From TrEMBL:
Signal sequence, renumbered to the chain: none
Name of the protein in question: NitT/TauT family transport system permease protein
Database matches in PROSITE patterns: ABC_TM1 (PS50928)
Transmembrane feature ranges: 27-44, 82-104, 116-138, 144-163, 197-218, 238-258
Main location: membrane
Length: 273
């Protein structure tokens, strides 16, 4: 009897927590917070007599965002920026994953190469962006190189951490049973490292957006970064905020794509087992 009496409050607390922390409750709380922030954005600048060129009200930002005359420019420059992001992201992610596989497979190569990788990673990529402009010009290649570097290192470090974290006893067991190196990589190390790989991919996506905009700030002929600089030069703060909203939406969409891909791939891998 004493045992059952003791366990009832614990069970009740667990059920209560599950009810409170349901996805619907979290979505409602998030939307309520967003609504509060938007209302504050609309009215606080007026209440505090903040100049419009410093923080415009939300209505001015929405007017600039949905301006029919500006929409073609937004669309064209968004396509330019996203082409840079996706191209550099794809190259950087694939290169980082391949190099991580090689370094994990050959410890001697890892010991020799990895210190240089750390040294290169420690250099701010924004600082070398002007060099890429000099080497590759103001076109798309210089921007892609910046994005590649910013996507490459998160993928490399996270994937390498995942590969090197695989239990060596399992690797030895695969070898004893006659598994070839490629089978060890595809059937053991790669599935085990999937969480770290997708963590690196999420970081790579965020860095790619940053890299593309910074590269466009340094020197470009078109892109969302160019539009931001032009709006800044004209003191059109509402347009700057509108462009930042576009960038944030693009970043959220890319992040959601990665999260959905993570769930699908990991669920498929677990089912395949």
């Amino acid at each position: 009897m004493s045992t059952s009496v003791r366990t009832r409050p614990v069970t009740t607390r667990l059920v209560t927590r599950r009810v409170v922390n349901t996805p619907a409750k979290r979505v409602i709380a998030s939307l309520a917070l967003l609504g509060l922030l938007l209302v504050g954005w609309q009215f606080v600048p007026g209440w505090t007599n903040t100049p419009v060129y410093v923080v415009p009200p939300l209505s001015d930002v929405l007017k600039a965002l949905f301006d029919p005359n500006a929409f073609p420019r937004y669309l064209e420059n968004t396509a330019s920026t996203m082409s840079i992001v996706l191209t550099g992201l794809g190259i950087g992610v694939v290169a980082g994953l391949v190099l991580a596989i090689v370094l994990a497979q050959f410890p001697t190569v890892y010991a020799v190469v990895f210190p240089y990788i750390v040294a290169i990673e420690s250099i701010p990529k924004v600082a070398v962006a002007p060099l890429f402009i000099i080497w590759f010009g103001f076109g798309m290649p210089s921007k892609v190189v910046v994005v590649v570097l910013l996507a490459f290192f998160p993928m490399l470090v996270n994937a390498l951490h995942g590969f090197r974290g695989v239990d060596r006893d399992q690797v030895d067991l695969f070898r004893v049973n006659g598994a070839k190196p490629l089978q060890i990589q595809t059937r053991l190390m790669l599935p085990a490292a999937l969480p770290q790989i997708f963590s690196g991919l999420e970081l790579a996506v965020a860095n790619s957006m940053i890299g593309a905009i910074v590269a466009e700030f340094v020197g470009a002929q078109k892109g969302l970064g160019v539009l931001i600089l032009q709006a800044q030069g004209r003191m059109e703060t509402a347009a700057v905020f509108a462009l930042l909203i576009i960038l944030s939406v693009l970043g959220i969409v890319l992040n959601l794509v990665v999260r959905v891909l993570r769930r699908v791939v990991i669920r498929w891998e677990m089912t395949a087992r």
